[in-house]
Here is the input.
Amino acid sequence: MQTFRDRREFLALAGATSAAGALALTGCGAGDPPGGATGAGSAPRRGGTFRALFTGGGEQETIDPHAESLAIDMARTKALFDRLVALDTHMAPVPQLAERWESNADATRWRFTLRKALFHDGKQLHPDDVLFTFGRILDPAATNHFARSLLSVVDLRASRAVGQRTVEVALRSPNAEFPALLGTLGTAIVSARYRDPARPVGTGAFRLTSFTPGRSFVARRFDDHWGGGAHVDELRVLSADAEARGNALRGGEAEYAYEVTPTFARTARADRSVRVVSAAGSTAHALVMKCDREPFDDPDVRTAFKLLADREALVKVVLGGQGVIGNDMFGKGYQYYPRDVPQRERDVAEARALLRRAGALNKTLSLYTSSVAAGFVEAATLFAEQAADAGLRVKVTTGASETYFKDQLTRGALGSHRSGAMTIPVYLHDRLLTRSAFNASAWRRRDFDADYAKAQATAAEDARTRRFEGLQRTVHEEGGLLMWGHADWLNAVAARVRGVQAAPPNTLDSARFDTVWLA
Here is the structure.
């Protein structure tokens, strides 16, 4: 992760703003306060430079939209590219590059009508670009393409262009959730002329100027964007650690700081120079137990660990009270979340009895974590103290932030986990199926896979809901997720920044810098 040695180095990377660029952002986004420098109802203004700070990933950073994995990567690819479909604040699919869509009766063939949009090289968006994109995502040699498994349902050979503005996508099996899949990570549309990730050809609101992994990204407004283009002239996305992000924001050296700590959020309330933008309960925090390794291959041990967690204390201490407790399932409040499942409470005596029966008492376990995400180390440390109440010794070990999420897939039997917003079907697909690319809990059950396939193939919404809620109940009772809390997601902006959306919990739609402006 890039950290700045001194103020001059930061300013050199951030770039000096012009008089227009030094002005603050105004407007009436959902995260904006009433009133403001020019009034909450004022129209967006064009001009200036917008500087956004994120946790860095060093040389691992990329602007390949199909290999994005870090938040900083996602911010850059949102600037340069668009998806066919976006997800709204309720995680439902809405048009982006696709104006509309429809399917046949069994949801095995979908038609998407494309809007008139230009790529950065001046060429018109065409169905062939969509088919090329799917082919690139599904390339067997591209093991780092985030959505490859998710879109493996696409039968590319049977898909086709229908005229100049319609693409027909054939699926290998029925999928009533297919449009929502196209709003997830790693699905941005690229030009059929796209060959070199260092030379992106997208339809996004910004066009690349320069990119140096681990240090900086600079892009200029694309005036021919189908949505009208961004408001600011220039976007700079920079890597900095949490303390540097907060200091830079307070010092007027940045306009946006990604993921600030609860402590920063509390102090910022008394600081007129910054404003915290909060999305309530939008980030799920968990510990993951690898179900294929001792001692978590025993379901009694998994249940015991879930009973050991003092969720109220974790939310209060780690999240600073800015969040709600979890119940060992993802997507609290989302569609397909079973609201009738009783909240799991702490029961040390029952946990101890289960651990004794499993022969797991008085053993030392390692909890693998990292400073890659706010609260990971703190939650691991606090849980280790809570586990000691049942006679367990949990040793906290930390890994490199740059590679933690990849390393976690193979290292340790217990680790830190979190997830931003996505639909529950996508979360289950990406993390809890036998072949899921990000199955950190090593939960592999063929019957669960089969039930998932039946759920996503069910066209009737009521029946589909019952199936997905049943899958969630199975995860709650038997899975390796100790999902202890759902944090308010905290970002910070300069006090006069406008156009930053705060609500509700679709973090996939965060860092949309095409919507911000300077006044």
